[in-house]
Amino acid sequence: MLLDQAAARSTIDAISLGLLATALGSTLLLRTEAFVRLLVFQGVLLATAAGAVALSAPSLHAIAALLVTITVKAVGVPVILALAARRLGQHGGTEIILSRKLALVAAVALALLAYYVTAPISRAAGDLTPNAMPAAVSLVLLGLFTMTTRKKALVQVVGLVMMENGIYLAALVVTRGLPLAVELGVAVDILVGVIVMGLVARQIQRAFAIVDVDQLTVLRD
Description:
By secondary structure, this protein is mainly alpha-helical. The protein has helices spanning 5-25, 32-56, 60-88, 100-124, 132-149, 153-175, 180-208, 213-220.
């Protein structure tokens, strides 16, 4: 054991706060490339959390899970989204239906709601760090918030990935490492999903010359 359980829990707790901070900060972002960089940072943090689990309980499974996390979350998904943004020409601003100040207030309210809802779970499970589950639920809620408040389809994909990052963090802290088959299945699922959504956004742009969700709704009507 290279890292004792107390140190691993402390590391994961600090990483959870970092992930929560990135999710809250996403409400202030205006450019597509900034969202891609945010996913890179979240991927690095999740890989660090997986590394803490691997160091506290070394095994081939833990090391494989760490490598999968780095490959998919810190490299694969951000690269695919960056390439999709380049092809779509979405390196500029991303419209938001709320002001950034109001969006930040709403995001903080959602984070507080996550802490309120998960407080009984954290108290009941003595081996959970105090901020891990609230941060995981906050990522899910704030990812959904990003999907509902942003008009560009590609940024909505970022919100979906953020939700998946929250689910992954919750699974990581509860199980101390998912079974390898599940890890691989989830990784392939999110990677293929992002590729498909990028291709769909490209086809929509070719057909309608736009990927703004509001304008696509008008076209439907």
